[in-house]
Amino acid sequence: MQASSHLVRGNFGIEISKRRVFPCFGEVRQRSLTLNRNFCIRSGSTCSGLRSGDVSMGAGLVRAKNGIETAVRSLVKSRSIKAQASGGDIEDLTPINPQAKSSGAVLPFVGVACLGAMLFGYHLGVVNGALEYLSKDLGIAENTVMQGWIVSTLLAGATVGSFTGGTLADKFGRTRTFQLDAIPLIIGAFLTATAQTVQTMIIGRFLAGIGIGISSAIVPLYISEISPTEIRGALGSINQLFICIGILAALVAGLPLAGNPLWWRTMFGIAIVPAILLAVGMAFSPESPRWLFQQGKIPEAEKAIRTLYGKERVAEIMYELRTAGQGSTEQEAGWFDLFSSRYWKVVSVGAALFLFQQLAGINAVVYYSTAVFRSAGIASDVAASALVGASNVIGSAIASSLMDRQGRKSLLMTSFSGMAASMLLLSLSFTWKVLAPYSGTLAVVGTVLYVLSFSLGAGPVPALLLPEIFASRIRAKAVALSLGTHWISNFVIGLYFLSVVNKFGISSVYLGFAGVCAVAVLYIAGNVVETKGRSLEEIELALNPTT
């Protein structure tokens, strides 16, 4: 059956064109309105500007307007977004302007920002292979307490950095904050590479932690604010992909250790190079147009939009920014504003997602992966780590391709459901006698499935979703607060995890993780909104209708 089209023309120069695709697809691909008189209808709202000579035609225009509004509402209904508002109401919000073709001009700037994500993963992973060798070199081979401090100091610094990042991003802008972030990253990497004492190593790790904490806050923030709406999900999930690449890079960097015990210093020193590239790259990257608009820097915002999307989209995006109107009507939010009745509901969602992410057991699975693989006959620690890392990278790549098609909420629910099933499998493989002959194989399968499930949603989505659901005036600080929750829970879990395992057993702990994943699915179903295909301004208007 061929596609059909027809044109309806009113008496006042109003055209409605509709092009229908094959009926079996059950949707209208393209709908457009052209209003040639001085009034317009957009997403069910009306603005009018009749000239004095048209007053006698007012009654006819009102009747025509009402008829067209009815038609428009039915046509765009399938494209409306239903979002849970802060007052508990459901708002319908349709696109303010049609999206132009995605511009590849943003990709180099996203790539530069992702150097911060790669350093995030690299600093997390580099100590795993190097700890044994640096402990011997620094004379703490028998001191597990000091080894623990070298590992955990990074997390403490990251907690400080995540809270600092939001304030810096609001005060100095996103690109300048990246450049400031390079300072602790470079100094921290230099100190750890040249450390002759444990104290110097700990200071270097703490500074590197501050750097990756700031990165964890501003990388997803910057990417979400510069990415075109139609590919924002794919570009946002690249953040998680580069974290995984950083972890794998740390694994590869550790391969020469067996033949050269002093190679650990080079491993830490390598991190200086991407930190310098990050600082230099951000000198040539455009500032976030949304931050510039919020600061009242309109010409600079328009210039950034031209750089990112092309001059043909300047008017469209500036209109959306003015519609959201946050920068011109309200002062920058303070930390206490995040806990006000106006914002707390959406802020609590962000904090809860990162809390579920950590309580779901990802660090425990990675920590025990080596022992699990050995039980299945895989004796090589490198092979075990490589399998986990490869699963993470593959899952993140798949998530990137699905993010703008399946949506954030559905990926989150699918991810936590898969993690719950994998955790249950891991728990049963340790306890059910009937599964004893296959316990090693089942444990490996459960571990790989868990990591794949995590990387499909629970890993990449929270960092992508948070900058989308937070209003512009609280976005940087709210992202920082949520990531602070991430780092604090990460630190606490790492501190007490072994004690809990020794008391209750790994099988019971895995069963508890499965329960957390199940609760996460229920929480997401009731509290998380879908944001795919919507600009940040549209989402903000839906979630904060009083702003």
Question: Widest sheet: strand order?
Answer: 1-2-3
- Could you say which structural class the secondary elements and strand pairing correspond to? mainly alpha
State the low-pLDDT regions, or none. 1-102
- As a percent range, the share of strand residues is 5-15%
CATH topology of the largest domain: Growth Hormone, Chain: A
List the quaternary state of the chains.
single chain
Find the count of extended strands (DSSP E, 2+ residues): 7
Helix content: 55-70%
CATH architecture field of the largest domain: Up-down Bundle
CATH class of the largest domain: Mainly Alpha
Number of helices: 21
List SSEs in N-to-C order: EEEEEHEEHHHHHHHHHHHHHHHHHHHH
Rg (CA only): 26 Å
CATH superfamily of the largest domain: MFS general substrate transporter like domains
Query: What number of domains?
Result: 2
Profile the largest sheet: 3 strands, antiparallel
Q: What is the typical, i.e. mean, pLDDT?
A: 76
Describe, in plain words, how this protein is organized in 3D.
This protein has 547 residues and is mainly alpha-helical. The protein folds into two domains: 183 residues, Growth Hormone, Chain: A (Up-down Bundle); 210 residues, MFS general substrate transporter like domains (Growth Hormone, Chain: A, Up-down Bundle), CATH 1.20.1250.20. 68% of the residues lie in helices and 6% in strands. A three-stranded antiparallel β-sheet has the order 1-2-3, with helices on one face. Strand 4 and strand 5 form a beta hairpin. The longest helix has 31 residues. The N terminus is likely disordered. Belongs to the major facilitator superfamily. Sugar transporter (TC 2.A.1.1) family. It is a multi-pass membrane protein.
